[in-house]
């Protein structure tokens, strides 16, 4: 009898140990995903500072840093609550979801090993949307107006889309079988089309367009720095994509939609579409900036199906994204849109391509306990994300424009934001800092 009790006790202890091992592994997994996601913002910082002219480089950096700083507390105070309260539509004010900042789960609750790390991952997703937007509007947006818009995008608008598309009860998921593993829709499309709405009201940089409507190229002050930043950004995306996996510490890994997935599948497809995007950008432009931007576009073009695609298909979709992005950027330029880094083309157009492509190539794929994936659901989802981004971006920036909170004064723009707003000099030795930039006819 004593021996039997001892065996039972040993089995119980083993089961308890496995339970705690699972919990700890889950925490550690998302902890390091979040740490990698910070690298995304190091990449955005270098990318946008490099893409600016010398007279604006520090102002662009400050804008990026502050977007990140404001995003974290606002996502704590209301962003996470919006996510948990909005799967059926707009936030349910009466819902007790545990996402309010005073909730017991939103703090050092020693029995809760999940809320904090999931909140952190989503907060970094939110910061990513703000960084996508920030690149498009460099060199002429007021810092105050930018911070307001970044908070609106990152802690309100995108998280509504995430609730509709990613929450287990989200209406896009439960009614239409939406599937978007890598967030081409609720992160990249929403942020890009929000930026497009702002750009319409913000207007182009001085000197971007001639009287006849033809465009001039405003040359970045440091292309190698911008290209390096893009590569660093892509390193961070391995954390971003890891955060899109539901990991419970055992061999049962799933996507956020409930279908089985492994890190191995995501590794195959991410590397294949990344390389395809570079090749697509090289074929189209021979420009290293667009080759690395094409790498991003390639990832977004395959993002919706990184969990299930056959790797050669991800590679072909990546090439498509790398080709689409620079062509879309030129088309927007002809419409008079001055997107300084091509964010709308890379994140918006390539993201839309990726969302719809999943409906074409993976229609009928089992979506866990939800309706099977289908082209109609993907198209409805893409249209939803486009409008969810564009309407608030256009509307909020229009209001800011009315109150003179959107664009810096012309004199400041000509002189350079660094010379007026920043107390230090970016390049005090060895470089010409006259801030005039370079204008050349765009091909």
CATH architecture descriptor: Orthogonal Bundle
Helix content: 55-70%
Radius of gyration: 23 Å
Domain tally: 1
CATH homologous superfamily classification: Ammonium transporter AmtB like domains
Q: What share of residues are in beta strands? A: under 5%
The CATH class designation is Mainly Alpha
> Count the strands?
4
Please summarize the sheet with the most strands: 2 strands, antiparallel
The total count of helices amounts to 14
Specify the oligomeric state.
single chain
Fill in the CATH topology.
Answer: Ammonium transporter fold
Instruction: List the uncertain runs.
Output: 1-5, 433-438
The average pLDDT is: 90
Structural class of the secondary elements? mainly alpha
What shape does the CA trace take? Answer: globular
User: How do the strands line up in the largest sheet?
Assistant: 1-4
Q: Helix-strand pattern, N to C? A: HHHHHHEHEEHHHHHHHE
Gap from first CA to last CA: 87 Å
């Amino acid at each position: 009898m004593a021996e039997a009790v001892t065996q039972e006790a040993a089995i119980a202890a083993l089961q308890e140990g496995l339970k705690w091992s699972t919990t700890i592994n889950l925490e550690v997994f998302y902890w390091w995903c979040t740490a990698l996601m910070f690298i995304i913002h190091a990449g955005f910082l270098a990318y946008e500072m490099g893409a600016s002219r010398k007279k604006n480089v520090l102002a662009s950096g400050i804008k990026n840093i502050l977007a990140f700083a404001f995003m974290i507390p606002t996502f704590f105070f209301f962003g996470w609550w919006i996510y948990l309260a909005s799967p059926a539509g707009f936030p349910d004010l009466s819902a007790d979801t545990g996402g309010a900042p005073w909730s017991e789960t939103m703090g050092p609750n020693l029995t809760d090993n999940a809320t904090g790390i999931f909140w952190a991952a989503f907060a970094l997703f939110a910061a990513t949307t703000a960084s996508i937007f920030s690149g498009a509007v460099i060199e002429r947006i007021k810092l105050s107006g930018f911070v307001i818009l970044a908070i609106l995008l990152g802690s309100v608008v995108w998280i509504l889309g995430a609730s509709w598309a990613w929450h287990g009860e989200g209406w896009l998921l439960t009614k239409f079988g939406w599937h978007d593993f890598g967030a081409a829709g609720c992160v990249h499309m929403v942020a890009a089309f929000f930026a497009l709405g702002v750009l319409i009201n913000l207007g182009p940089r001085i000197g971007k367009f001639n009287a006849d409507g033809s465009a001039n190229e405003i040359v970045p002050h440091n292309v190698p720095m911008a290209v390096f930043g893009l590569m660093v950004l892509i390193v961070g995306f391995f954390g971003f994509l890891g955060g899109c996996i539901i990991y419970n510490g055992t061999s049962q890994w799933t996507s956020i939609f409930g279908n089985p997935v492994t890190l191995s599948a995501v590794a195959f497809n991410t590397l294949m579409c990344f390389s395809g995007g570079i090749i697509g950008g090289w074929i189209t432009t021979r420009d290293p900036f667009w080759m690395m931007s094409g790498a991003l576009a390639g990832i977004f073009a395959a993002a919706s199906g990184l969990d299930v695609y056959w790797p050669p298909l991800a590679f072909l979709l990546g090439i498509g994204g790398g080709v689409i992005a620079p062509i879309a950027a030129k088309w927007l330029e002809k419409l008079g849109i001055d997107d300084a880094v091509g964010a709308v083309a890379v994140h918006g157009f390539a993201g839309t391509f990726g969302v719809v492509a999943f409906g074409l190539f993976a229609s009928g794929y089992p979506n866990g306990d939800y309706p099977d994936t289908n082209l109609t659901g993907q198209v409805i989802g893409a249209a939803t994300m486009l409008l969810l981004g564009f309407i608030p971006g256009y509307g909020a920036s229009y209001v800011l424009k009315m109150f003179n909170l959107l664009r810096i004064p012309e004199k400041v723009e000509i002189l350079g934001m660094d010379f007026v707003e920043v107390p230090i000099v970016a390049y005090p030795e060895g470089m010409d800092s006259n801030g005039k930039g370079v204008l050349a006819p765009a091909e």
